[in-house]
Amino acid sequence: MKEETGKKPYEEDDPEVLVTVLTGAGTQAFSAGADLGNPKTHRVNSPGEHLATVSPRGFAVFNAVADFPKPVVVAINGFAVGIGCLITLCGDILLASDNAELGLPQVPLGIIPAYGGAVRLARYVGRGKAMEMVLLGERITAAEAYRVGLVNKVVPARKRSGYNVFAGGAVSGLAAAAPEPSVTEKTFDEFHLYTVANPTTLRHQETKQVEFIRAAGVKAERLYIYDGAMLDDWHSGMSAGEDSDYGTQSNKKVAVFREFKNSEANKLGIPLPKGKVRFYTQDAADASLQFVGENEVGHTPKDELVRLYMGNSFDLVGERKRTDFKVSKANHRAEETFEIKVRNRKKEPAEVRVTEHLYRWTNWEIAAKSQDFEKKDAQTIEFRVPLKPDEERTITYKVKYTW
To answer: What pLDDT is recorded for position 48?
Structure first.
């Protein structure tokens, strides 16, 4: 590479070369890594010697690939083990033949993945899977590498031409050699039958989660909802009307939901069976995908709207308190006034949907309010509160009940 040879690769300045392909010379392996049978492979006279000689050369090679100014397509043909696996992570697009295997056997041998490889691996597959691969040292198949997001595509070993590139920076065989859709579905009676194409290996008495479907570019709106009343045993009617303390307990948590439509236009559009949905967001700093939440989804037909709870917001806070309560049994009426505060400690604007349950009786009217609201159902209203960074806003309303 250029730091080792003292000159730049010719492809860097050649205007006719738009993409570079990095692949193994043979058909059995991309790279089997260092010769671990050679006692001199990882032996130096002192740590200082290693830092002065081995480390700079290794980082020079890795950085030359990672920092190359043109797209680097890594074509993994066969085994990519140890250093051979780590160098693949420096590329921009990773293609693997269907007989490829990737693994990091360093830790069981008493050494660790070098040259920032463990950090790069975590950016591809997440911390949990990276720790599993590093600490156990087990190899994974091309299909498993595709499932966890380590490689972009798996192509048949006989179609190595799928690794070719054409002017403009695209991989010529990428679309043609792409695997069949990971899931096919057909309707049968009142059921949906699914075939999951990606193979998986189960050991004796092993249970494993299998990816059902993956979709990129799905529009999933993030909703912030403050439901301040703690109504675990929500009941309405005269008992609620007469209990002056009912519904006055409050929490400060603002819930985070993700909402998306299961439609073809939204990169989905097949009936979804019950299961777990995971969300990933691209980090603008390094373009890596970061896991941001998951939840269970029920059986969902196509073109239906899905809303999933993701947890509570760290930087949004709510407060709710009752400021007045009057009840007249003789006149069959009650009045109740609330004050709700919401604060945004984020660096960007956010809208909080303040949900209020009118739980005391079914006949009600809002006698006073600080802003407009939307009636969601017979006993629920919602205030939409836009907040600037570091802004606090107060919502007040008075409700009258008659029975």
So the answer is: 52
CA atoms within 13 A on the CB side of 127: 3
DSSP, collapsed to helix, strand or coil, labels residue 293 as: strand
Which residue shows structure tokens 């998306």?
Answer: 260
- Quickly count: other Cβ atoms within 10 Å of residue 156's Cβ: 12
Cα 356 off chain centre by: 31
- How far, CA to CA in Å, does 5 sit from each of 2, 53, 65? 5, 15, 14
What is the C-alpha separation between 144 and 125, in angstroms, rounded?
A: 11
DSSP 125-158: H-HHHHHHHHHH---EEHHHHHHTTS-SEEE-GG
pLDDT in tens, 129-143: 888 888 888 888 888
Q: Mean pLDDT over residues 361-374, rounded? A: 95
**Closest among 365, 361, 325 to 238, alpha carbons compared:** 361
Q: Is residue 101 classed as helix, strand or coil in its secondary structure?
A: strand
Report if pTM > 0.85.
Answer: no
Query: Residue 328 has which token pair?
Result: 């007249």
Torsion of CA 293, 296, 300, 302, to 10 degrees: 20
Closest C-alpha among 259, 60, 75 to residue 154: 75
Strand duo 289-297 + 72-76: pairing: unpaired
In angstroms, rounded to a whole number, what is the distance separating the alpha carbons of residues 71 and 151?
A: 15
- Radius of gyration of the chain from Cα atoms? 29
| DSSP H or E run through 121 | helix 117-125
Q: What is the pLDDT of residues 13-64, one digit of tens each?
A: 666 667 778 888 766 778 777 665 555 555 555 555 555 555 677 677 777 7
Domain positions in the chain: 2-171, 221-402
Count of beta carbons in the 10 Å neighbourhood of residue 147: 22
Looking at domain 2-171, which of 2.30.110.70, 3.30.70.1130, 3.40.50.970, 3.90.226.10 is its CATH number? Answer: 3.90.226.10
The Cα 100–Cα 81 span in angstroms is 10
- What one-letter code names the amino acid at 182? S
